TrEMBL record:
Coiled coil: none annotated. Keywords: Dioxygenase, Iron, Metal-binding, Oxidoreductase, Thioether bond. Transmembrane segments: none annotated. Gene3D superfamilies: Jelly Rolls. InterPro entries: CDO_1, RmlC-like_jellyroll, RmlC_Cupin_sf. The keyword Oxidoreductase applies. This is Putative metal-dependent enzyme (Double-stranded beta helix superfamily). Belongs to the cysteine dioxygenase family. Fe cation binds at residues 92, 94, 144. GO terms for molecular function: ferrous iron binding; oxidoreductase activity, acting on single donors with incorporation of molecular oxygen, incorporation of two atoms of oxygen. There is a cross-link at residues 98-160 (3'-(S-cysteinyl)-tyrosine (Cys-Tyr)).
Length: 181
């Protein structure tokens, strides 16, 4: 007789179950982002629990995304992003709610609003997000840019309320507008 044993649950399995429970409540996007952020805060993994050492290397000024999980019903996706020193995104917003947790290093987030006439971005704040920081947001009002201003590699875990395998990106729109202080 052969005895079958289930593989032990990983930290990613436990986090996925917590995110699944948080998204199953049918709340609005901001409430869902807040619930998912709470789940991530409780189960924030280390980079070594999610990525191999070779996935942490890269050229200065670059970032790389590593898909970790796409929920079978398409309700959320989880991606680890490795930010080398000097890496930055374009200013953008998202198609759905987003939650991120910084696992190593620091992510600097610049926040913007759109001017009343839509011709410029207005600086709305900045967040230096160190390791351990977790935040969630939902459109509208989610215009931002993410940068690694430090000398060390930063790693973050992003959870998006969509099927990234299907839609390809969480970005709704890029903003190539002048920035006013």
């Amino acid at each position: 007789m052969t005895t079958l044993t289930a593989r032990p649950a990983t930290d990613l399995d436990i986090l996925t179950a917590a995110v699944r429970a948080a998204t199953a409540r049918g709340a609005d996007w901001q409430d869902t982002a807040d619930r998912v952020a709470g789940a991530l805060r409780e189960h924030l993994p280390s980079p070594g629990q999610l990525l191999r050492p070779d996935q942490l290397v890269g050229e200065p000024g670059t970032s790389s995304g590593h898909m970790l999980h796409v929920e079978p019903d398409g309700s959320f996706s989880m991606m680890a992003i490795v930010w080398q020193p000097g890496a930055e995104t374009r200013v953008h917003d998202h198609v759905t709610w987003c939650v991120f947790g910084v696992l190593a290093g620091a992510e600097h987030e610049d926040l913007y609003t759109l001017s009343d006439d839509g011709t410029a971005l207005i600086e709305a704040g900045a967040n230096p997000n160190p390791a351990g920081e977790v935040s969630g947001f939902a459109p509208p009002g989610d215009i931002h840019r993410v940068r690694n201003l430090g000398d060390a590699t930063a790693v973050s875990l992003h959870i998006y309320g969509t099927d990234l395998d299907r839609v390809g990106s969480s970005v709704r729109r890029f903003y190539d507008l002048p920035i006013r202080g």
